[in-house]
């Protein structure tokens, strides 16, 4: 599993571990089923303003220092693949999307996506429940199984009681930093 934002700015490497002059700029999503189909790229060259793209299926490995691909020939321009060009035009923005209950109550905002590094399938979301909750508890995790993507309202709809489907990140928030165990009900 990979957290999407951790890839932004990483370099591409070829099969021989040679660093290429391309860097991950953003993710491109397909909505049904929700999946990353590839990444838009920045090319570090003066005067180059073209958009480049690496299809997800051409990625061989994800690492902390970069993303490995088979060959630089796998990097294409979006117009070379009609599905990619259509996805760019559709511009499905998951980051910043509202998370609502079935009654329409706003319970959070999507801050990031988590995807399967083999298939590209989105398996969950990193969610903000508000500044104070984020500060005290850290961001939350929302499994894709517990919500539906509603493109009509451009939001995620939580299927169940949201208090039971949002899982707080175990490493986040002041409570964790200060060593406060919520089960012992220690106070600040």
Instruction: State the total count of DSSP E strands.
Output: 14
β-strand percent reads 35-45%
Q: Over all CA atoms, what is the radius of gyration?
A: 19 Å
The coarse overall form would be: globular
Instruction: Determine the mean pLDDT.
Output: 82
Helix proportion: 10-25%
Second-tier CATH architecture of the largest domain: Roll
CATH H-level name of the largest domain... which superfamily?
PRC-barrel domain
CATH class of the largest domain: Mainly Beta
> How is the CATH topology of the largest domain named?
SH3 type barrels
Oligomeric state of the chains in view: single chain
Please give the alpha-carbon distance between the first and last residues: 34 Å
Total count of helical runs of at least 4 residues: 4
**What is the total number of structural domains?**
2
Q: List SSEs in N-to-C order.
A: EEEEEEEHEEEHEEEHEH
Structural class: mainly beta
Domain PRC-barrel: 94-145
Protein name: PRC-barrel domain-containing protein
Organism: Alkaliphilus pronyensis
